[in-house]
Specification:
There is one protein chain. This protein is mainly β. It has 2 helices and 21 strands.
Length: about 270
Amino acid sequence: MKLKKTFSFSDKNQIWRLLISDSEKILIETRDTDNKEVFFHYVDLSSAKIIFKNFQLEEKYWIGVEKIYDEKIIFHQYAKPNMPEHKKIIVYDVESEKILWQNDDYIFLTILDNQVYSFKKKFEGREIFILDFLTGEIIQELGNDDEKSKLILENINIEDFSNYKYPETFFTEDEKINDIINKEVQNKGKINNIDKLLFGNLLMFNYHIKKENNFLDNMFAVYNIDKKKKLIAEILNKDLNSFSPDSFFCYKNNLIVLKNKKEIISYKIV
């Protein structure tokens, strides 16, 4: 196995969130916290084609993404600034570049079989509504006691993450892996928090070097295990005050690396 760089995305603002659609496009959320603005960018993982960049809605900051479904992005606003509670449903169609519908009364729960499950807060509890995904029209009112609504609520957070692989701290007796890591970190001072990910015959890992000024550098490396060949060596973050986890992950045969919290580098594993 080897790596082929597919694209690099960088922004002046900090990257806050990444979402990958079923069509293998990556939605990148960046935020300008000083001027209170959020921007959305959409890039094809395979072709590196930029679908859109610096996209904004009418609400410029207190807004986020619930889900990407069938090349439509479901946005939400926040009930109050600095509070996590969501409000409103806004469905934006990427292909037509327009908002299909918006509902200010309901809050998104999930989407199943082209139907949006939402709720409206009541004085006691909440009532569940099923909306048409393309129009926002009410298909069915489930109330708050219906068995079907209970089943939806019980399974609301179930997502399929089988296509994702994340680094973790683990110990191994594999001599090749240990030799590679030891060779990479030798003579680099005090090493902390080595997180590893195995993908076929590739070893991916990041680690932190504690420097004399007590700041940390977050390092990243990828090796071909069989050949003990270094494929990538990057400094992901310099002069950190604390450890910086979640710096890379794999989606299917794509390696996604987050650098300096403002840059994304994507590789195809071939």
